[in-house]
Every structure is written in structure tokens, then in C-alpha cells.
Amino acid sequence: MLPADFNLEKRFYFSRLNQYEQSLYSFWVGSLLMGYRKLVYLPSREYAPNPETNGYAPCFFYGKYGNDIDYCKVWHAMIYDCPELYFIYHCVLEVDRENHMLNFGSDSQDYSDEEIEEINKKLDEILHRFDSITDPFLLELAVHDYITEHYGFDYEGRKEMDDENVVMDRRFYEKFTVVGLLKSGVAVCGGFIKLLQFVLQRRGLEVANIIDIAGDYGRLHSWLAVKLDGKYYHLDATFDNSLGTSEE
Q1: For the chain, does the N or the C end have fewer beta carbons within 10 angstroms?
Q2: Greatest CA span in the chain, whole angstroms?
Q3: Tally of CB atoms within 10 A around 217
């Protein structure tokens, strides 16, 4: 069961999938948020949720082994769209079509239910800070200003990314999610964007999480495109950050 304000129709990459891919995406998100965090099922012919009915019917497995569905495409659309799935990190997808399963676990320690409850509580508190703002332009500005004023860029974490010997454990990957900001007050660009994305999406705005080379910066960078009044505006909370403007 998805939260009442978890509007998949406004999720940028979800809206660009076909109905079968959307149904699989929805199935996975529901499973993950319910606590199935090591593997999710690839529904079989008999039990796949059908987007056209309220029941269950074949929809994912077109061919003998379901080769017409690009599971990685659906998976990555979901990860880009859903900052709520911060507990999935450093995962390697492994499709087991014979048993209708997708394994995505890693050697790293999972988040406990208690940790997830605490992180979700903090996210809820931030989300409700903006309940009184109804104008989407003012909402975007308020969320942007709050995040850039209260959190700093993780320069040490950025240096770690260039270290060939760095241990890619949960601590390392947290800097790319909302967890880095909530636990330590700092993160790299991915963390800033995921928190912005979380609030704006849950308040009904359509945003796109973008990863590309950022101009003169010359490195991979993450920012948002936010749809306001029918137009997309680029939003970058990292380069606008006021708590750390240099590496010194």
C-alpha cells in the first residue's frame, strides 16, 4: 500500500513507461515499502497484476521467458523517481526468471526497521514544514532555501569518490541519498537532490532527477527539472549551497 500522497502519475520516469512497465514498477514499489528489501518477485503469468482490471492476469511475460520486459529499465526508472527507496544501495540486479524473482541484495548491512522508521519520521517532519504553502513557485523556492540554508556539501565525501581504495559500504552510499543530510547534515549532490525531490513530489509537483556532466564542473552531477505552470525549470541545490562555497 502506497502513502496517500505518493502519486505515481506525477513521477517523471514512471509516466514515460508503458502500462505493463508501470504495473511492474508499482508492484515493486509496493513490495519494497512493505519491507521486502532483499528480493522482489517477478509476477508469473498467473499472478501478474493487470493494469486494465482490478484482478490478476498475464501481463509481464510476453515471451516464453518474459524477454520483452526490460527489468533494468523499470528498476532504474523506479530508483530515479523514488527517493523514499534510500535503503536500496550498491545493489546488483540478478534476474531469476525460472523462479520469478529479482535479487538486488548486497554484502552490506541492511537498514533495520527501527532505522527506517526514524528516517521516515524525519522526512515527514521536513515535508510538513511546507504545508501552508500552496503556490508551486513559492513552494519550490521555500524548499530550495530551507535545504541550502540548513545542510552543507560533503567535501570529504566528494574526495572519497576519487579514492580507488574507498570501501563502498552503506556509509559511503548514504551521501548520495536523503540519509546523508538527515544523519550528518552533509551530502554530495545526489543527497541534496533526493531531499528536494522527496518534498516536491509528495506535494504534487512533477520533477525529473537528472544526472549528467555539469558544464565547466566537468564531472557527473545531479540536479532537478521541476515542472511549474506547464514548463520545466532547472533547479540545483548543490551549486546554490550557502554552508560551504569552497574546499578550504
Answers
A1: C
A2: 60
A3: 11
